[in-house]
Amino acid sequence: MADVNRGNRPLSPHLQVYRPQLTSVTSILTRITGNALIVAILMIVWWFIAAASGPEAFATADGFVTSWFGDLVMFLSLWALWYHFLAGIRHLVWDSARMLELETAEKLGWAVVGGSVVLTVLTALIV
Fold this sequence. Notes:
Blueprint: H1 22-53, H2 55-65, H3 68-95, H4 102-126
């Protein structure tokens, strides 16, 4: 029998009801950083191809890569690389059926976020 009251009830949890969990946010961010790293790779490949193409092409690519925007993209890509790396290690730990308890999983999420920031700053200072 058809439900006559169908339009009066929500079809799924609404954003005001559902509170995103750290583990879901970090999982989504892992996918975003993985895709964002493609932008940095393309920029680096463009720089190498321009270096092999000649001085004019290299000057254009190098001017972009060493501009404030290029520096920002590279710095954020450095953070994305560390974040993606640490999140991958976390997933390897989870794949071995360890540290899946809710409190431990949340601590691992904060460790990935904090560790990526610390490692990014250390790498930027050293390099």
